[in-house]
Amino acid sequence: MSVFDYSDLSIVIPIGPKETVEALKALDEYLMNFKGAEVIREFGGTIWEARKYGVDKSERPYILCLDVDTRVSEEYIQESIGLIKNDQIDVSAIDYFYPHHQKHPAFGTSIWKTRELKRIYDWKTKPDRLYVKIGKGKYSNISSSFCECEYMWIRCAEEGLRFLELDYRAIHLKEKVLNVHS
After folding, report:
1. Integer distance in angstroms from the first to the last C-alpha of the chain?
2. Prior bond to 99 cis, omega within 30?
3. Residue 22 falls in which region: left (phi positive, over 0), alpha (psi -120 to 50) or beta
4. Could you say which DSSP state residue 45 is in?
5. Tens of pLDDT along 38-66?
6. Are 46 and 125 in contact (CB under 8 A)?
7. Confidence of residue 78 (pLDDT cuts 50, 70, 90)
8. Phi/psi of residue 80, each to 5°?
9. How far apart are CA 10 and CA 154, in angstroms?
């Protein structure tokens, strides 16, 4: 049992229309590890709309964006909060274990300074701009395969936020692997 104080953490979980009762029950069991955290479950609309609404409702200094079928370690959360609290970074994220790895950090595993995420979160599944600036004189084309993760990391760069990918991996439950301590 963890003795870490999660009272500064909001866990924002968008709930899609296809989530099963079993997935939600497993999520509730997992969330019992985070005593004191504000858990914001948002239903309806698209995943990004639910996530945006949850982010806007958050009242804690730090936010963990978590997908229903994703599990991250307490060590990852604790290290991230420590780095953010000590003003070393603004956001952290990790990728998934193989075979679900994306080869880039996932937004559904990210931990943020709440004020920064509230300020920059503007993802839409159909972007209203074709290009995003990713550096001095550099732009990237937003294609139909462009995901929320990539977009948000570019937004971090655009806004000068300090982003760090930590050396942990998340578990994606597509494999129905419920042992989050492996």
Report:
1. 16
2. yes
3. alpha
4. S
5. 999 988 777 878 888 999 999 999 999 99
6. yes
7. very high
8. -60, -50
9. 23
Tokens of 67: 């997908």
Nearest to 58 by CA among 34, 29, 37, 87: 37
Altogether, the residues listed in the chain come to a count of 182
Collect all residues with Cβ–Cβ distance below 8 Å to 79 and sequence separation of at least 6. Answer: 92, 166, 168
Please give the Cα distance from 22 to 20 (Å, whole number).
5
Contact (Cβ atoms closer than 8 angstroms) between residue 165 and residue 94: yes
Written as six digits, the tokens of 60 are 């804690």
DSSP secondary structure, 23-36, as one string: HHHHHHHHHTTSTT
Under a CB-based contact definition with an 8 Å cutoff, are residues 144 and 127 in contact? Answer: no
Angle at 46 between CA 53 and CA 22, to 5 degrees: 95
CB-neighbour burial class of residue 117 (10 A; exposed 0-12, middle 13-18, buried 19+): buried
